[in-house]
């Protein structure tokens, strides 16, 4: 998808669908004499849209004032502050408690939809898709799937929209069309490239169509998103592989957009916002009146609980025993013990230096290890070995024994005896002159 | 004198036990002169000790000067054990309120072994007890700067820092996986549930999904297994950047055992008494256990030429020329062109008045690949002794041409050191370390082969899990479209609280994994900073303060971090 291509609605729909199916991330720019619009995709879904002719603040302001959600005076004041470097309009709206952030995100989403829909009405121009690794968008915004854009644009724009013909609605009931069956609906020309050969993902939906299930029910049972189901049904219908058995329902959407209707009435602002966000965000549920959605069952968001729970447990380990992160696994016991041995050697070396310094000054080893702490040679933590066991100690005339205490008894294999032997500063025997061999005196009779 | 008597009695009390074993001096076949030199050191120390008890500064000074002069004669003018003893005496006097004697004890400690961190720590302690807090801070700072100049302490410090960084990275990595689950896990759960629901009714499917996600906690070290497991499950749902961070973390986890094993072996060598003594010998320090440690070194490496060379150099310093010559000749059997050994062998012959042999070895030393100024100088000295002045002048000229400054210095030594002895063996300590490492490593191979496992297992294990995960991913997600599940995060406003309370959450949610990881790493590193000593190797430094300093630094930096974070969130 590189290089400029002329805009044709059908070609643009192809591009949108391809980006969606490939879960592409990047920016699609569409340009013609009316302006330039950039549509930002993250993982195949639209997360942002910008127009060169209208800044985000202007677009947002227009929607808010048109819907009566913010008074023009309020908007002017905020816009002046925004232009004076006082921060983003979005943040100012939230900070002034004119709108809740969640509500604002839905309105932003509405603007994304409006801008994206706008380019679907253009009859000429060029587009280019810039594939990038990361894209910028408002955190928390609900992404707009390509299928949702197309279905909703079709609803709003009717015959001038991207999907000619009948567009299914949630209550539509479809059944499959057997090969060769003529059911009054011959295959139509697709408004975009679509492969309905065997193996196509779209054909998987046929398994769910039995002439009894509504589109809403198919969505729930198949786990596919609502708009994906509607869009696939549209494709199957156009391809002559499925047919609506309830024409009244199929024509329902043609009667007009269910979106954002009657907002200009005399409702209060809160009520308008509620209506707006409900219709924009929760439209599916309110229209379809469905039984439990999969997400409803996950409303308490266990992934969040699990993630935060894990982090909490890990923090406890970090504060109590951070060394466990180094060699946590059972088969690493040998290395863990070897590491502990060297740590113990270092700890004993410190005790040894303190004990021998004491010997240098007192002519004997201390009777208690704690005496070395009281004279400042050691500190409290030196009375414990690296494994956290208290150290036992026993002094003799010319040596001392240090060992870790395991339930009162010396733990095997980890004690250390240090004599003064061979230390010319401590060992009096060291400087004893070598004994000359004495010739035995033999008394002869 | 009564005190000296008491001290001697105390020392004497040790005799019965010590006499049971063969004396190290006997093992080393030291002559009476050498033993007397050591005995003199012991005598002077006891004299200084008694003078300090009596607060007799003049007598103490005389004893100290004599002590240092005796040590100088052994060519090892620094006495670390006695320096510690003097510092200990200073702390003792300070605790009794006698700060004047404490001060000259500290000065003595500094002269006995200059720039020891322990002396600076003791000085800080004395200053604190005297109420001179500014001085205490200054001494503490000086102690830490000295610490990094001592090879053993520096090595242990660097090891501890490495361990701290590893722990911080691994702990942050584990928390990062938790963040991934919190921000990206919804889709994983949705897919799992959807898949299981094909076969089981709703409640059972939920239970099974939770069980599938949490079963690793039942394993030993289950929580950390869980982290690895989730990192693999979430792989399929991550962006390229998130996967890159995960790969980095797996690599760190995989190489950690290798790094630890390598570090442990190095520390083992550094902490070995023989290595400590070798290091002291290199720096001209005479440790009480020097001879014992080097005897044990010889026992550990009986066939090592480097050890023989090192011991021969030590014998030279002690004036044990016959013992030294025997070892040098052993060295020369394997290294016939070793210049320093040839020179020193010549010196050994010279000092036992075998000048013919001495000349022969000095001449050999001058004809090796690396010409030795000392050998030429020594030849000039012998020729001069024998009135062959023209040859002496020629050799001296050659020596000057090779090392003019050295010759000037040697000439200034005059009669005290007529023949120059080189320290080639003492300079081979790195070679000895390498040999020790090789011997100990081969000794470990049988007993601790299990230690090798960790170096190889985690990575293939992770890759195997990855393959299984990829297979599961294909099965579970087959035919499914993408869902904007993650978009629901801010619906109830809890995301806002998590952003505030959980570093890295906002970044993870925004799809910036590296920034999320770094946002976690900083506070975790600060939290674990006071635990460095617990994590790593205890520094064998006496009189050092407890970990309060690190705790204070950690708390201070954490406060700065929290304030900065608060301000950033506010704006």
Fraction of residues in β-strands of chain A? 5-15%
N/C terminus separation of chain B: 76 Å
Largest beta sheet of chain A, briefly? 5 strands, antiparallel
Order of helices and strands of chain B: HHHHHHHHHHHHHHHHHHHHHHHHHHHHHH
> Which percent range fits the helix content of chain B?
over 70%
Q: Give the biggest beta sheet of chain B.
A: none
Q: Could you say which structural class the secondary elements and strand pairing of chain B correspond to?
A: mainly alpha
Helical segment tally of chain B?
A: 30
Secondary structure tally: strands of chain A: 11
* Largest interchain contact: A-B, 105 and 142 residues
Helix count of chain A? 15
Q: Helix-strand pattern of chain A, N to C? A: EHEEEHHHHEHEHHEHHHHHHHEEEE
Radius of gyration of chain A: 40 Å
**Shape annotation of chain B:** elongated
In terms of per-residue confidence, which ranges of chain B show pLDDT below 50 for 5 or more consecutive residues?
1-21, 445-449, 478-493
Rounded mean pLDDT score of chain B: 82
What's the arrangement of strands in the largest beta sheet of chain A?
1-5-2-3-4
- Helicity of chain A, in percent? 40-55%
Q: Supply Rg of chain B.
A: 33 Å
Taken as a percent bin, the fraction of beta residues of chain B is: under 5%
Number of strands of chain B: 0
Give an account of the 3D structure.
By secondary structure, chain A is of the alpha+beta class. In chain A, 40% of the residues lie in helices and 12% in strands. Chain A has a five-stranded antiparallel β-sheet with strand order 1-5-2-3-4, with helices on one face. In chain A, strands 8, 9, 10 and 11 form a four-stranded antiparallel β-sheet that branches. In chain A, a hairpin with a 2-residue loop joins β2 and β3. The radius of gyration of chain A is 40 Å and the shape is elongated. Chain A starts with a strand and ends in a 26-residue tail after the last strand. With 571 residues, chain B is an all-alpha fold. In chain B, α10 packs across α28 and α28 packs antiparallel against α30. At the A-B interface, α5, α12, α13 and α14 of A face α1, α2, α3, α4 and α6 of B.
């Amino acid at each position: 998808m590189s290089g400029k291509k002329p805009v044709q609605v059908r070609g643009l729909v192809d591009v949108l669908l391809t980006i969606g199916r490939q879960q592409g991330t990047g920016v699609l720019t569409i340009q013609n004499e009316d302006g330039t619009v950039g549509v930002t995709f993250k993982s195949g879904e639209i997360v942002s849209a910008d127009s060169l002719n209208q800044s985000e603040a202007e677009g947002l302001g227009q929607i808010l004032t048109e819907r009566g959600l913010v008074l023009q005076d309020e908007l002017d004041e905020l816009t002046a502050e925004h232009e004076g470097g006082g921060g983003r309009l979005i943040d100012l709206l939230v900070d002034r408690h004119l709108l809740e952030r969640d509500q604002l995100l839905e309105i932003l989403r509405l603007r994304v939809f409006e801008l994206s829909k706008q380019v679907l009405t253009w009859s000429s121009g060029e587009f280019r898709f810039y594939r990038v690794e990361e894209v910028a968008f408002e955190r928390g915004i609900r992404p707009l799937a390509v299928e949702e854009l197309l279905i909703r644009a079709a609803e709003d724009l009717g015959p001038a929209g991207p999907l000619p013909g009948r567009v299914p609605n949630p209550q539509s009931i479809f059944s499959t069309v057997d090969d060769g069956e003529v059911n009054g609906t011959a295959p139509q020309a697709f408004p975009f490239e679509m492969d309905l050969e065997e193996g196509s993902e779209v054909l998987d939906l046929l398994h769910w169509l039995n002439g009894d299930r509504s589109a809403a029910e198919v969505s729930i049972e198949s786990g596919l998103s609502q708009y994906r189901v509607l869009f696939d049904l549209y494709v199957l219908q156009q391809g002559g592989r499925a047919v609506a058995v309830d024409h009244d329902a199929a024509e329902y959407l043609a009667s007009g957009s269910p979106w954002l209707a009657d907002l200009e009435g005399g409702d209060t602002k809160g009520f308008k916002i509620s209506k707006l966000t409900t219709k924009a965000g929760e439209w599916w549920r309110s229209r379809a009146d469905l039984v439990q959605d999969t997400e409803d069952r996950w409303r308490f968001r266990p992934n969040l609980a699990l993630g935060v729970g894990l982090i909490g447990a890990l923090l406890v380990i970090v504060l109590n025993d951070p060394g466990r992160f180094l060699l946590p696994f059972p088969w690493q016991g040998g290395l863990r013990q070897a590491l502990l041995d060297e740590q113990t050697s270092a700890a004993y070396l410190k005790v040894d230096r303190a004990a021998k310094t004491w010997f240098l000054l007192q002519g004997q080893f201390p009777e208690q290890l704690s005496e070395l702490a009281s004279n400042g040679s050691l500190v409290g933590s030196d009375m414990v070995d690296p494994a956290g066991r208290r150290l036992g100690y026993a002094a003799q005339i010319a040596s001392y024994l240090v060992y870790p205490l395991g339930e009162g008894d010396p733990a095997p294999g980890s004690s250390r005896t240090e004599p003064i032997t061979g230390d010319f500063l401590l060992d009096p025997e060291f400087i004893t002159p070598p004994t000359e061999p004495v010739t035995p005196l033999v008394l002869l009779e | 004198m009564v005190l000296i008597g008491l001290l001697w009695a105390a020392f004497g009390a040790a005799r019965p036990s010590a006499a049971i074993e063969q004396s190290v001096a006997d093992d080393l076949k030291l002559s009476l002169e050498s033993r007397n030199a050591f005995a003199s050191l012991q005598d002077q120390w006891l004299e200084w000790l008694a003078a300090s008890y009596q607060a007799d500064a003049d007598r103490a000074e005389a004893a100290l000067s004599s002590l240092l002069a005796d040590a100088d004669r052994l060519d090892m003018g620094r006495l670390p054990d006695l320096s510690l003893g003097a510092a200990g005496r200073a702390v003792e006097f300070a605790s009794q309120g006698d700060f004047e004697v404490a001060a000259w004890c500290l000065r003595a400690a500094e002269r006995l072994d200059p720039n020891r961190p322990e002396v600076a720590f003791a000085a800080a302690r004395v200053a604190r007890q005297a109420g001179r807090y500014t001085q205490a801070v200054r001494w503490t700072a000086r102690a830490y700067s000295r610490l990094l100049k001592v090879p053993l302490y520096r090595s242990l410090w660097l090891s501890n820092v490495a361990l701290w960084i590893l722990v911080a990275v691994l702990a942050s990595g584990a928390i990062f996986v938790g963040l991934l689950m919190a921000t990206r896990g919804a889709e994983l759960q949705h897919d799992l549930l959807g898949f299981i629901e094909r076969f089981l009714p709703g409640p059972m499917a939920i239970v099974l999904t939770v069980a599938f996600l949490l079963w690793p906690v039942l394993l030993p070290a289950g929580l950390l297994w869980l982290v690895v497991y989730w990192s693999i499950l979430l792989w399929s749902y991550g962006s390229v950047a998130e996967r890159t961070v995960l790969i980095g973390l797996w690599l760190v986890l995989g190489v950690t055992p290798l790094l630890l094993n390598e570090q442990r072996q190095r520390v083992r060598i550094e902490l070995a008494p023989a290595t400590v003594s070798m290091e002291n010998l290199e720096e001209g320090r005479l440790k009480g256990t020097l001879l014992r440690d080097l005897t044990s070194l010889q026992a550990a490496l009986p066939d090592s030429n480097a050890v023989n060379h090192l011991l021969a150099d030590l014998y030279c310093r002690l004036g044990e020329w016959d013992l030294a010559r025997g070892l040098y000749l052993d060295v020369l059997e394997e290294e016939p062109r070793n210049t320093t050994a040839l020179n020193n062998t010549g010196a050994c012959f010279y000092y036992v008045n075998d000048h013919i042999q001495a000349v022969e070895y000095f001449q050999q030393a001058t004809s090796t690949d690396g010409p030795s100024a000392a050998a030429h100088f020594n030849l000039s000295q012998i020729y001069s002794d024998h009135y062959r002045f023209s040859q002496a002048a020629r050799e001296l000229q050659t020596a000057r041409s090779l090392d003019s400054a050295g010759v000037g210095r040697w000439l200034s030594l005059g009669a005290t050191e007529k023949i120059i002895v080189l320290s080639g063996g003492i300079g081979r300590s790195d070679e000895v370390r390498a040999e020790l490492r090789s011997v100990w490593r081969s000794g470990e191979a049988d007993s601790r082969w299990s230690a090798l496992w960790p170096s190889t297992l985690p990575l293939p294990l992770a890759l195997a899990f990855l393959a299984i995960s990829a297979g599961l991913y294909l099965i579970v997600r087959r035919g499914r479209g993408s869902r904007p599940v993650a978009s629901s995060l801010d619906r109830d406003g809890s995301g806002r609280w998590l952003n505030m309370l959980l570093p890295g959450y906002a970044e993870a949610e925004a799809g910036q994994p590296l920034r999320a990881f770094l946002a976690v790493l900083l506070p975790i590193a600060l939290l674990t900073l006071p635990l460095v000593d617990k994590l790593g190797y205890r520094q064998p430094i006496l009189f050092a303060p407890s970990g309060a300093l690190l705790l204070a630094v950690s708390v201070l930096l954490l406060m700065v971090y929290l304030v900065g974070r608060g301000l950033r969130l506010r704006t």
